[in-house]
Amino acid sequence: MLPVSYRLESAWQPEGGPHGRFTFTLFNLSDSPLSGFRLAYTSLTRVVDPAACDNATFLRRNANFHEFAPPEGFALAPGENWTFTVGGLNRQAKHCTDGAKSAYLTLSDARHVPVAVSDLRLEGATSEPPPARLPEGHVGLPFALQPWPAKIDAVAGEGLPAVLFPAANSSTEDIRAISDVLALFHRLFPAGHAPFSLAPSGQGQPIVFAKRGDLGVEAYRLAFSGREIRLEYGAAAGRQYGLTTLAQLIDGARNHATKFRFPAAGTIVDQPRYGWRGCHLDVSRQFYPTADIMRLIDILAWFKLNIFHWHLTDDEAWRLEIRAYPTLTTLGVLRGPDEPMLPQLGNGADPVGGFYSQEEVKAIVAHAAALHVEVVPEIDIPGHSTAALVALPELADGQEAPESYYSVQGYPNNALNPAVPFTYEFLEKVFDEMVELFPSQYIHVGGDEVADGSWMASPLARKLMEEEGISGTFALQSYFLKKVKQMLTARGRKLVGWNEVAHGGGVGTDGTLLMAWENPKVGIELAREGYDVVMTPGQAYYLDMAQAEAWQEPGASWAGTATPAHTYAYEAEGEFPEELKSRMKGVQACIWSEHFLSRGYFNRLVFPRLPAIAEAAWTPKEQKNWLRFAAIAPLSPIL
Ligand code: ACM
For residue 181, what are the domain limits? Predict the structure, then answer.
């Protein structure tokens, strides 16, 4: 690694503007003077008043991309620094991750060079360090299970079988199931001792398998006797969960013997609380290579989660290869200083891309299916579509005024246009390819955060509204999404969307599943309207939210602070009236990636809240116990 030549220090202070003020200091650590340059940085705390800056000229902004120039004729000698301040921010900074996430310089010869950044410092108020995320915790029953089972009545043993192995006469399917969970274990814990062996061992215990027609497909029962283990299951998923439970029990007891044991006697009778136990991942804001996706799916399986909601497209990038439209994954993924899409959210001087080929998608879907995880793909339409619009400019109404509306993230004119005929031709082809790749009965089509006012400056949209008697953005959105639903129905698929799909008249409740993200009340209202709902409220289940109010705690704050204790305790079903409870299909963690610039940030924010949500998804309310969870959560595998 070459030493950095330039470093940008950034601080925020509460005074100096309606939402405080940034102070930036650029250090020239190189051996050459710097003049005639421009500085660009990306920050979720955006500049909305270009005039409110001092000792610099604000040049331009696109969403989170900002560009400044030093004062006319300015030169920065080696070892010197340049300080400028920026007020006119769109909101207060609250956490250390609210500042510049990346920066670069454009030199006088048009070359772009990297600038190192660190997290944002707080000045003029106390910068609090992050508190501990988990108390020490303690377990009543000394078993290392996450999620905790529905019913456990077991006695801890003194010793520990070295391995568990299939009893003589086990079926090939049962032996394969052991091999598969063993492989999962080795992927997650490469240095761990195998919990299972296919060959019998004098130091182990046999597992006697029994398939039972009276158990649900995800249900299993374990009976321990000290000599052998009986595993009864309803179907392959239940068998996998039973084996996963055994692997967790034995590994916890082996590695943390002062806290955890293996059962010598008793039973575990287990099945999930909800059918939809999801985890979403936004791969648009940051790209995750296939190996990371596979590993995340492994982690979901370890926590007995069964849905991987794959957020494949957004303003920042379209990551799914669509063979009919190759530019989606050339132009539609590339971000760089000289590309049609500027750097965002951690991108710097070097262009970055990344997408999933159809072959990779097939491999990921197969990997998930083998672990009883269903992949629900999302293409986020009609809003959040900057990348698609850059890749396929003919999707826009050419007569629409530029920058006629802005999304909440600051993107101009970012919604697919319901009045452009090519929009539907495009989507038909996209769905044709998606249904070949994804066997799930569900396709998620987003539907969130279309800016009020979208399309109102599009002559084509105006004409369509007049012809169809439609008034306003959301009625037009409903017109569009109804057509999308028809496309999915024609392909035998069901529509899933974010809660705003119901706006402006919605799409009809029949076969539609909506995700309540804005707040818990929205979920209850949707259920009352007749929609099936999955609860993903940002206030508890958005894993990009900071885990404490402290400045030095990384993460977002727009939905509040989601402490692990709150995420764990939150009861999504809590306020649902009895008659609407059957409409609530489950719960889901959402991993939005704006702040996840590294694996370090990912693991810091996702854990321990992902296993907390897994427990909410699986474990009956009366069995939830925060201190027990706190004692077991540190055993979680991480990405
Ligand atoms: C969302 O957070 N916009 C679904």
Answer: 151-270
